[in-house]
Design brief:
Length: 461
Amino acid sequence: MFKKALDTVEKFNMLHYGDKVVTGVSGGADSTALLFFLCSLKEKLAIEVYAVHVHHGIRGEEADRDMNFVKELCARLNVPCRIAMRDVVAMSKRDRLSEEEAGRIARYEEFENEAKIRGASAIAVAHNLNDQAETVIMRLCRGAGITGLAGIRPVRGKIIRPLLYCSRTEIEEYLRSNNQNFITDSTNFETEYARNRVRLSVMPYLEKEINSGAVYNIAKSANMLYEEDEFIEYMAKSELDKAVIEKRSNEIVLNSKILASLHYVLLRRVIRLALRHIKKDIKDITLTHINSICQIIKNGGHSDINGGIKADESCGVLKIYMGNNEKKGRYFYNLLYDEPVFLKEAEVFIEISQNATKNDKTRKYLYTKVFNCDKISGNITVRNRKNGDRIRTDKAGNKTAKLKDIFIDKKIPSFEREKIPVIECQSGIISVLGVRDSAFFLPDENTENYLYIRVWRKEND
């Protein structure tokens, strides 16, 4: 076991010289072996090891026995140990979770807390080869894709799993060779939990009746799928970068034509990455939701996704965003000379000025527009579009074009049109920012006074 675990640590670069590592210790064979293994690396890697034992507030005297066992074990190994008391039953009722899931969440919360306290860069947990095979079987029964069937990851953020390629038999043999006993949780034999039913019934049947190496082979398949999943993820990130038009905290805008050219398998993965930009946890988003976005990429339209996420496609542009961030309603602002105004609907600053040399070098201007101030009358305002808007297209001001037609010609998606700033004065529309300027207000050889309109993003202010 030791060699397999060490090879795993080295292969996945789990630990570095001088690291601080937190490990969860229940007192069972797996976590006891993991603690022993980490302690054996103290001299080799100069690592510091810290243990956390979570008392779930259930199983009465047996849970107290486990806690005392871990205390004595850590004291003997000279490992600082923190006991965390959690009421998992109350937590499960409060959050409407199974006790199994509530316990898992509680344990990881305590591991993370200890890592922060200790300044640890790694959290070691004791999943093994058998856990991997059981996980794959359970996910296969739920209809998981490649990512799910790749099983438990060797490394996930701070979480490391040095024993992932060691079997339960090898782990117990390692403990026997070190004359170290361990304790057994009686709930491991209760068939109330789905994982226990897989462990106690399904896996023994597969090994006896189908293939004696079922556990190893299933875990081997998971490892191959993990490597292929990593490759597909890498490709998907590359394609997403190519398709991105704009990214903000709660929305992402993509080129639909680039997306439509992708193989369907890669497209689904790109969409999942885009969704994770909006919402980190997307476990409630199913293949049906992904497929609905694929459909609007092809045909245009709108799709409502779980968790308040929405998607719109129009004019070759796909926008995925949180519904509560959708720009709605009218906006209207007065513009005063040399006083920047922030348009929260368009997320830009606008400033008008008659000062030609004014230029704040700390700002990254999207653009600076110059117009004939002699033709401008009344107040200068900025708003979003409204029905019937027209803009002058010739110097004399005799010819006009519908703003709606300009948007269509320029293939500006309908969901983007509402937030585009329209700057106007009493004499008419001066500029539709980023789309079209009025020819009537452009400066010429007779212009004496100039109007400068400067625009920059909020993040650059």
